[in-house]
Prior knowledge:
single chain, alpha+beta, four-stranded antiparallel beta sheet
Amino acid sequence: MTTDAAELRRRTRELLAAHPPANTGRTDFLQARFDAGLAWVHYPEGLGGLGAPRSLQAVVDAELAAADAPDNDPRRIGIGLGMAAPTLLGFGTDEQKERFLRPLWVGEEVWCQLFSEPGAGSDLAALGTRAVRDGDDWVVNGQKVWTSSAHLARWAILIARTDPDLPKHRGITYFVCDMTDPGVEVRPLRQITGEAEFNEVFLTDVRIPDSHRLGEVGDGWRVAQTTLMNERVSIGGARIPREGGMIGPVSRVWRERPELRTHDLRQRLLTLWVEAEVARLTGERLRQQLVAGQPGPEGSGMKLAFARLNQEISGLEVELLGEEGLLYDDWTMRRPELVDFTGREAGYRYLRSKGNSIEGGTSEVLLNIVAERVLGLPSEPRTDKDVAWKDLAR
């Protein structure tokens, strides 16, 4: 049967009739939606989808929104949805997909990302966390950092070095790590906002079964590229309405507080409003390109624009508010479940946006990616490209 818009509407209405949102528990409804293939329609049948075009997801979402059906709180499980799921779909075994995708999408299991290290942030391929084969298991030792949601996560996507005799981009393998393992220690990293949504994670003799490996041994860098490209799209390319995101609060202040206006601030706000709208429409175009395949390096450009605009807009908002912009509601050390840019005050937005140019790949690294893979400019000289990892200066 051809899965077109009419067919998806029919299936969605059947779901709503069999599981009325008003009378069905949230988890039960989400599980039923997944099983009906209406979670992410472009995924294969049996894995929450129907093998339909990605663009038809909007048809399902509109029907469910009109019926006031619950969603899966995508901001809370963004790492699972935006990074782990597409990597599992691309490289996981049938058993791994069946085990992980349903509870991931429903939100029963939160995921985090164990990639960056104290000595391997911008240069991620220099990572030193080791995984050594021991029978049917891998024994992992090392340290990861900047790990969002590690304090909430049940599972983690992890890359570790399995062959130090190879150059740094080779000899890396990709795993799914159980965050409840006794060898996993999560410590909070308090940020400039006063909160600790980030963590550092210490791995001591963590045993990961080989059945939790994604991709071939030593091919982890290629697998990780799928994760990273999807991460940048999920950070910089989220669908938002006009005046959504950071430009919304400052626009509201401008309309509601005419006494704060100056000519200079007006010019700057107009410029940033236009740039935010251009970025939003560019994101729409990028999502349309995704219908035809996997995300490419263009996502790096979107993430670059996202970071710059957030920092400039939040700075303008603080300046517009004057003394009020210096106020901050609560410096209590908390470990939040998600980042809420628009639900807090201007001071929080200003401080939190400083991390946008670091998380998901630093702006400097992303500029290189755009230069080389989008614009086709010559690569920077890399003297360590063919040197064994163990021989690199550290």
